[in-house]
Amino acid sequence: xxxxxxxxxxxxxxxxxxxxxxxxxxxxxxxxxxxxxxxxxxxxxxxxxxxxxxxxxxxxxxxxxxxxxxxxxxxxxxxxxxxxxxxxxxxxxxxxxxxxxxxxxxxxxxxxxxxxxxxxxxxxxxxxxxxxxxxxxxxxxxxxxxxxxxxxxxxxxxxxxxxxxxxxxxxxxxxxxxxxxxxxxxxxxxxxxxxxxxxxxxxxxxxxxxxxxxxxxxxxxxxxxxxxxxxxxxxxxxxxxxxxxxxxxxxxxxxxxxxxxxxxxxx
Length: 267
Prior knowledge:
Distance between the termini: 44 Å
Number of strands: 7
Strand order of the largest sheet: 3-2-1-4-5-6-7
């Protein structure tokens, strides 16, 4: 299933497009001749990327700085996009962050903010744009989850729970959208060499293990290709698939003590 045909008014909205997988997804879409609207908090980075994509691929690249954790900021972003005469026909919900440590020792406000960004913003943007896609009978959604979605994780309890929500929500949405011309796909990366680990407090060596960690570009290619094919979910990389299957099938009474003892995050 191909992405909706490009037109002057159509755009691909990519959240969290200032770094990592978001940047790589924006580049993959621009390579395919798709106009993009880039959003994140860091406007300077977005502007640099927009210039790169316009010059290299001749596409329309828009920038709308936004703190996705704020409902009011999301409303302003949506209004700006509409005022520019753009229809969001491809939605990429990539914005998100994590943390590492015992929940009781973490910043509670930051944990709640994570839920707003990783979960609330995903549902809000889908609620804003999916009905119009269905009415047009074309559109595609790519929600970035994680292999962390397949099991609870000690010292990353909030993050794993938010990604479990994204995966479950996207799989249900995929079924809801059957026969509408619109698709929903969950991308489930594992350890990826981006700024995510540093921001979350995850040891750098865990994000750099040869054969176990992947590049943002590899994740982006897999995600965009899966979205093009209308797949329900994709887990790029054999080690990530094994991790997800093991996390889903292993009894929690066995899995949680093992993760608590050996998972090298937030210790």
